[in-house]
Amino acid sequence: MVLWHCDTIHAVDSIHRGQSDSSVFYIPAVPLCEMNVKYLVQQRDAFLQGIPPPDFPGGEGESHHIGRGTHEELIQLIGGRSMGFELFSIKSDMQLGEKQVTTRANTILNL
C-alpha cells in the first residue's frame, strides 16, 4: 500500500513483486484559491465529456463507456462541490479574506 499527499514525491514500482494486490490511497488537500478553482472548471468539463482531466495523459477516456459516472450520481454522493457542480458556501463567521476568495471561486465556477 502507498499513501501520499499531493505535495510530496510519489512513485510506484514498475514491477509488482508481491504475493497479493497492492493499493494506492490518495488524499488530496486543495486550498480554495483562484488557480485551483480554474483547474476545477477544467476538471468538471472533462468529467462531463468523459475524458481525462488536463493533468492526465490524453485520450478518449471513458467517453464511450456505457454506465460511466454521471453528474447526477456525483450530486447524490455528495461529490457535487468537489467536482465544481455546486457553489462554495459563504458563512457568516468567515473572515473578510475568506469571503472574498470564496466569492471569487463561485464567480469562476460560473454556476
From TrEMBL:
Gene3D superfamilies assigned: B-lactam Antibiotic, Isopenicillin N Synthase, Chain
InterPro entries registered for this protein in UniProt: Gig2-like, IPNS-like_sf
SUPFAM superfamilies assigned: Clavaminate synthase-like
Protein name: Uncharacterized protein
Organism: Rotaria magnacalcarata
